[in-house]
Amino acid sequence: MKIFKIIYNSLRSLTFEKLWKLILLFLKHPLFTLISFYATIKTFNIAKKEYPKTNSNDGDGNAFRHALWCCLIMMYCCKISSPEKSLNFTKKMTDLHEELFPNKPLQKKMDLHNNKFGMDFFMVMLPGIHRQFFETSFFIGKLKEKTKDAKVLKDVNDNFEGSLVYLEN
């Protein structure tokens, strides 16, 4: 139930303009938006279990959570639509999240980088598995391995293409 409290408090914190952007995304893509809400809850719970100390701060668990979040949104959206439409929606959704709930520049770079990593990771796996047969378990172990090799982001100009990134605490 903690996740619902977090979501409720997050929505309450939005200005009318930001809430309107979220409503517009929902109106343009109602099913995708509902699916992404489910993926968000599932991701939050998995990350909390796998990385209890770092999933909600700027540590390696946060990097895992953002990448998994994108993989799960895409996985569920691909079950009802094309990979291209799923990718486009996932990018819109995750970019909007960063706009609605702004962070400091380094945190924003980290989140956007890890979101892109998750989307790219999904697209790399896509040719090997029919999109209808993807399961959450396909991503968890592989992303945990990638998380072990995550790099520490220290500057907004750092470029760690192909790696997850996190901030030192």
From TrEMBL:
Keywords: Membrane, Transmembrane, Transmembrane helix. This is DUF6973 domain-containing protein. The chain crosses the membrane at residues 20-41. It comes from the Bacteria. It comes from Halpernia frigidisoli. Residues 24-151 form the DUF6973 domain.
